[in-house]
Amino acid sequence: MISQPTFLPWLGWFDLADQADLLVLLDTVQFDKRSWQQRNRIRTAKGLEYVSVPVKSAGRFDQVIADVELADPAFGTRLLRTIRANYARAPHFTPVMADLETALPGLIATGQLAALNEGLIRILASWLGIDTPIRRASAIDAGGKRGEHLALLCKAVGASGYLSTAGAEEYLREDAGHFAHHGVSVHLHEYDHPEYTQLHTPFQPYACALDLVMMEGRGAGAVMRSATRHLRALETGGNA
Which pTM value belongs to this model? Predict the structure, then answer.
């Protein structure tokens, strides 16, 4: 699996990582403030609400994710306060919060968005029982752009297959030739969000995975895996 280092990813993201032999965090592509790279949603009494990471972006239009710097060192304190305010009554709040409180100061101290996101991903993956190894694309020698870059990343790590979210199907079809050239098969992941007990009703899917972890603790992985999930081969229509 190759994916941008999302801030507090949703369950489908982790479910795909759970099925991969290696997770490569794609921090070598251009940063986009409008994406999940710096924001995600938590469940609140009002519904799903965004939590966003302040970053330095003025005049840095072409920066890649690996170079994005955090804009406010106090963000970690605010994030913990927000989580505490919305999840203090969750069944597994105390141990999950302890992990966050221990790790977050060090992650914020790096000053890097990619480091923050990777650290939070590792914490949630541990609670979900996911032990897939993680590497950053910026630490792997692979050139190219778009699909060619992905195919070269696969080749560099010795992967014969690439797992992707179904949402990337259109551009993967356009770049299918690069994967075929390097002997890399492409499979798309489809995931139906499972329903579980939240602190508020009615149930609202697509919160970040932290929501499920707060509610189910070490049982969160079983809930994640109980959903309808499968991989299907990318259909290239003969363009590969």
Answer: 0.95
